[in-house]
Design brief:
The structure is a single chain. The chain is globular. The chain is of the alpha/beta class. Helix 15 runs antiparallel to helix 16. It is built from 16 helices and 19 strands.
Length: 564
């Protein structure tokens, strides 16, 4: 009986231990994958206000000509030094991992692949793109990941600078948040850095990687203008790095490319091929703005012209780029894997002709989001088939957008070298049953018509009201999880302006959800109110924000759902 009781107690204790939260798990941060920690004593990295470690890295890498935003290890050193300066007021020494200084140091924080990671048997470059590991050992901590800067041929001259494989940098920011307690809400005063006089790190081991490979917002790529902040506020932080905004896919957003004005400048004698003319003789060409132009998607000669342009671009290794560059401005050229085509929304008359009448099915004649779906897909098929002949191995990325958002009913034999980005959904509506049903039907429809190939998404903010802008970001995870079965991990674009720092508490959870759709929005926001504003003001702001959410969900959403 005593043995049974003892066994039961030990079992209960073991289960309780297994169920206990990991000491470095934090619901307010990205949910990472913890693994069995190594067996060694705790690491006193900061003692009595003094750093008890040096930063080590391979000093022989990232020294050549390379875009600075791709130097993952160098950026990691900068980020960690900045965080340490904020939390301890000290500048950490940086030495080569193979140096005598590294060997004699009491402890080290090692960034990126080096002789140290080799000795420990770690292989960060074998991890998935942008993934990282954080692992302690007897003499310190290793933060290392999949870094394109260390892998030959990771980058191509046609890649946009937003294409970055910075695994170590991702891990460094996670460590800064998880272990040092720093938070990056917005530039300047929005950086919360607790003062640290003593820091002892327990054995730990975890990994993480982003769910979406494209987590970019063009507006956030830029540093905030100085005039937004008082002169004594630091604004030098690159928040696209702290927020892990990057791309590790070349399947980029198909953003209205090529610009029809640039295409005409490249082929001035092809105006009648490029632009649609209706039966009255009106040509849809507007030299002043983007809206008002319609590239003639009823004309197979335009498809051939575009593919010929792609081919010349590739044959010249991107040197010839007239259809995408004009008067010093470049707009969405092809990359080494993908060519793009889409155009801005313009309402047009007379697209239906006797020879294409079958592309206007009767059940779609009054559909605001599907009237032209088959017409556009037919044009995409012309392009895709032409690319198979002229550019085998290259892919075409196109939009399902505006009045051609719905999947086609007629043109269902789509070449397998075409990928689609479906433009649908204001995330603020993610809890309304009608929107959920519409989104599911549309994304599942595209998935099926493409032979069970997932699509990427282009979603929208509700920018007309400060109310919706203040709360919409929290619903990004609901939007993602609604369409997740048919959504490619290659990307999700959030079209909601940029640099709207006054709504940082809305953008913050949205972009965290890009990294992991299971991000705990409420935990992150609840933590932040007091961290950023103090207990009294934080409690008031939390209550007010909660009221905004409650009114939206209990009144507005309830009203929408009651009419379904």
């Amino acid at each position: 009986m005593l043995k049974k009781a003892t066994f039961a107690l030990l079992t209960a204790a073991g289960l309780a231990l297994a169920a206990a939260p990991h000491p470095y798990a934090n619901l307010a941060l990205n949910p990472v994958k913890f693994t069995e920690p190594p067996n060694h004593p705790a690491l006193p990295l900061i003692k009595d206000g003094k750093l008890n470690f040096v930063i080590v890295r391979d000093m022989q890498v990232e020294t050549g000509k390379m875009d600075s935003r791709r130097k993952s290890i160098s950026l990691s050193v900068d980020a960690l030094q900045d965080a340490l300066q904020r939390t301890t007021g000290q500048q950490a020494q940086v030495v080569d991992a193979a140096s005598a200084e590294a060997a004699s140091a009491a402890y080290v924080i090692a960034l990126g692949k080096s002789t140290l990671t080799d000795k420990l048997g770690l292989k960060p470059l074998d991890m998935p793109k942008e993934a990282f590991l954080v692992k302690s050992f007897g003499k310190g901590i290793v933060i290392a990941g999949h870094d394109g800067s260390l892998i030959p041929d990771s980058y191509h001259k046609m890649d946009w600078t937003r294409y970055r494989l910075n695994g170590t940098l991702n891990g460094t920011y996670d460590f800064i948040e998880r272990v040092l307690g720093v938070r990056y809400y917005y530039p300047g005063m929005g950086i919360v850095a607790p003062k640290i006089t003593d820091l002892t790190v327990m054995p730990l081991s975890y990994t993480d990687e982003p769910y979406f490979r494209n987590r970019y917002n063009w507006g956030y790529a830029y540093k905030p203008p100085k005039e937004m902040f008082p002169d004594d506020m630091k604004v030098e932080n690159d928040f696209d790095l702290a927020w892990r905004m990057a791309m590790s896919t070349r399947r980029t957003d198909a953003c209205h490319s090529p610009d029809p004005h640039y295409l005409l400048a490249a082929f001035p004698d092809k105006k009648d091929v490029i632009f649609f003319t209706d039966r009255t003789g009106y040509q849809y060409y507007n030299p002043s703005t983007h809206i008002g132009n319609l590239m003639d998607i009823t004309n197979p000669e335009l498809a051939k012209l575009l593919v010929a342009s792609f081919k010349k671009y590739y044959e010249t290794d991107g040197e010839w780029r007239l259809p995408w560059s004009h008067k010093g401005r470049t707009w969405y050229p092809p990359n080494s894997e993908y060519a793009l085509f889409s155009q801005a929304d313009t309402f047009v008359r007379d697209l239906q002709k006797p020879e294409n009448a079958h592309l206007f099915p009767e059940e779609r004649k009054n559909s605001g989001s599907g009237k032209l779906s088959d017409l556009y897909v037919n044009f995409y098929c012309w392009m895709g088939n032409e690319m198979k002949k002229e550019l085998p191995g290259k892919r075409l990325h196109v939009l399902a957008y505006h009045n051609y958002t719905l999947p086609p009913l007629v043109c269902t034999d789509i070449p397998d070298n075409i990928d689609f980005q479906v433009c649908m959904g204001r995330i603020i509506m993610a809890k309304t049953t009608a929107s959920q049903k519409n989104w599911r039907n549309t994304f599942e429809g595209w998935y099926k018509v493409l032979g069970n190939r997932p699509v990427t998404a282009w979603t929208y903010g509700a920018q007309g009201s400060a109310y919706t802008q203040a709360i919409q970001g929290r619903y990004m995870k609901d939007y993602i999880n609604c369409i997740k079965p048919w959504l490619s991990r290659e990307g999700l674009f959030y079209d909601a302006s940029g640099l709207q720092w006054k709504f940082y508490y809305s953008y913050y959870p949205a972009y965290r959800s890009f990294w992991n759709p299971n991000f705990n929005v409420d935990a992150a926001l609840d933590e932040h109110w007091e961290k950023l504003y103090g207990s009294k003001a934080g409690a008031a702001l939390k209550a007010f924000y909660g009221l905004l959410v409650e009114r939206w969900e209990d009144v507005a959403v309830a009203s929408f759902n009651s009419t379904d």
